[in-house]
Amino acid sequence: MQKISVALCTFNGAEFLSKQLESIKQQSMPIHELVVCDDGSSDETLAIIDRYSKQVTFPVHIHRNPINLGSSKNFEKCMALCQGDLIFLCDQDDVWMPEKVERIVEYLTAHPEQEAVFSNATMIDQAGFPTGKTSFEQIEFTQEVQGLWNAGGSFRILLKGYVVTGAALAVKKRALAKIGAVPNITKELIHDGWIALNLSMANQIGFINTCLIQYREHSNQQVGFKSKPARVSLMQRFTRSREEKLCTLRKKADIAHALLKHFEAENNVNDEITHALIRREAFYRMRANLPANRLFRFLPVLKHALKGAYQLEEGGKWWRPLLGDLFE
C-alpha cells in the first residue's frame, strides 16, 4: 500500500485553516502524514496546527522557515520533506471533499503512466458560499480543451496560460527529481504551473473533471485565480496603447525562448517540444515586430493565420488577437 503525504504551506492562515484541517481529517481514505511548512506566520496559524496535531492519528510534522521563502519555494521545501509515495499539495484556505484522496488514488492506480493528476474545484467566496462556477469553467478548460489534453496536447495548452492549480494537485514523490526546482523565468510561473508544464512534456499529468475541493477566493490570497491576468477584451484591444500590446507579445516570446534554453540545458527535451517552443517564439516575435503601418501588417498576419498559428498559439477566440494585430 502506498504512503500518502499532504504538503501544507501556511502563512497567516488562521482565518480559514481550521476548516481545511478538518476536511483532511475527515477523508474516506486516511493519509499517513501531514507536513507543514510555515513561512513566518504572526497570527494563530501555528497554534491551530499544534492543537490539531494532538487530535489526529497521523503524524503532523511542523517546520518553521527562518526566513520567508514565498509560495513556490515553500512548496518545494514542503514536498521535499514529505516521505509518502504520493504527495497532495494543500493550501491553507480551501476545503477538501471527503472522497478527494480516495478518488485521486483510484485514478492514479487506473492510470499508472501518469505522474500527477489535478481535479476540478467548486469555487466559493470568502464566506464559504459557492459562486456558481467551477475552476474548470473559470479557466475555460472546456470539453474541447480537455479532449485536446487527452489527445496529447497538454504541453501546448499549458503554454497558453494557467490551467493547473496546486490546491487540486497530487504528484508522485518519484517525479520530484525529474521536475526539479522552479526556474526563474517569469514571476507567473510558480510551483504548480512548473510541475504541470514539466510533466506535460511526456503527457504524464491527467485530470479529473469532478470537483474534489472547494476553492476559496478571498482578498488575502497570495496566489490563485484572482492573481492571474484577466483576458483582454475586444474593446481593450482597440483602446490600449500599442506599446502595452507589444510589451505583452515580447514577453511571451521571451518566455518561450527561456523555456527552450532551460529544457535544452537539462537534456530532457524532445524534438516535438523543441519545435513547439521555437514556433511559439517565432509567432510572438512576428507579432511584436509588426510595422506601425496597418497596410504592411496584412500579409504576415494572413500568412500565419492560414498556417493556423493563431488558433494553435492563442486558442479560444483566436480571431480577437488576429484583428488586434491588423487594426490596433
Explain briefly what this protein structure is.
By secondary structure, the chain is an alpha/beta fold. It has helices at residues 14-25, 45-53, 71-81, 100-110, 135-138, 143-160, 176-179, 191-200, 234-239, 242-266, 271-288, 298-306, 309-314, 319-327, and strands at 4-10, 33-38, 60-64, 86-90, 95-96, 116-124, 130-134, 169-172, 205-216. Helices cover 46% and strands 17% of the residues.
How is the topology of this model organized?
Blueprint: E1 4-10, H1 14-25, E2 33-38, H2 45-53, E3 60-64, H3 71-81, E4 86-90, E5 95-96, H4 100-110, E6 116-124, E7 130-134, H5 135-138, H6 143-160, E8 169-172, H7 176-179, H8 191-200, E9 205-216, H9 234-239, H10 242-266, H11 271-288, H12 298-306, H13 309-314, H14 319-327
Structural descriptors:
2 domains; Spore Coat Polysaccharide Biosynthesis Protein SpsA, Chain A; alpha/beta; single chain; 328 residues; 9 strands; 46% helix; elongated; 14 helices
